[in-house]
Amino acid sequence: MFETSFVCRVEHEWRNVQKPSTKVARQPQEQSLSYLGLVADQGGDMADRPGFGVLLTRLLDYRQTDIAWLASASGIPESELRSVADGAPPSPSQLHDLAGALGFHAADLFVIADLPVPETLTPCEPAAGSTLSRLVRVTMALPEDQRTYLHETVERLPQLPRVCPADPPRTYYQGGGGFGEMLVTMLCVNRNLHSPVAAKILALLTQGRVYLSPSTFHSIAAGRAPLNPIWLAGFAATLGIPAGDLAAVTRIDLSEAVLSHDPLAAEMATLLWGCRRLTAHQIERVCTEAEAMLLAVPDNASSDDWNFVHHQGGTWWGAPRR
Questions:
Q1: Which of 14, 173, 258, 290 has the fewest Cβ atoms within 10 angstroms?
Q2: Lowest mean pLDDT: which of 19-33, 126-140, 206-220, 299-313?
Q3: pLDDT of the residue at 166
Q4: Residue 13: which residues within 8 A CB-CB, separation 6 or more?
Q5: Cα–Cα distance between 40 and 57 in angstroms, integer?
Q6: What DSSP element (H or E) covers 312?
Q7: What's the confidence (pLDDT) of residue 222?
Q8: What is the pLDDT at residue 47?
Q9: Cα 102 to Cα 72, 105, 242, distances in angstroms
């Protein structure tokens, strides 16, 4: 069940995290890293990211399968896959075929392989991502039938011509960021979730457990802040990638991560992926439809019976729990 009591707190506290500090320059980063008491060991080379062949082998080992199975599932000759596993760079066509066999989006495999994502696989309009946290916040509060309608609306909307050239990765997402860079690029380049929108959505989809300021988000991308289990689980939920797969690839132990699988978060990850092909105008249209479904919450209503979304004009707006 979606607990909305934390939503407004996320908005309020998230703004407070961003307030400029008059203290030493490093303090905002240190405060944000300690916000959840999750400061990890700074030792080791955080940017030491193995090649695609190593990461592919880790994933296959975790899934208890092998190159022979993958060759059969993908249609790629086994000899070619063994060359990739041994260090040969994968070709774009191989990544497309591997994506179908492994259950990954092709765009994400390009990022894992540390290759530029083809423009045809990038979001339709870079500016469209700014509305996504608002859409997710409202949609999560709605009953299942209304959420289904919104998913169908997104699927029905036509694919329009690209509004402007694909937004390239920010400079702080490029080079030396290791696995942090990889995960942030999947959010930014492949799902249009640039900071600060990405930070808000991470908080929404983890019920506030992964709550990162923009400075921490950028530090993760640049490799200055090491990934820890709960952050990895939060990225997995937002990306719609099984946490076990990401843990196998990154070699991060998830045994202490307390985030359980949330079907609603998985549903929102699917919605985010669908929205990547829409323009800002189309996403605004879907968001307006979602907000029109909200009802005025009765004055005596409790959070046990209602999902509270936002307060406007002296009235709480939300949706009944079903």
A1: 258
A2: 19-33
A3: 53
A4: 211
A5: 27
A6: strand 306-312
A7: 87
A8: 56
A9: 12, 9, 12
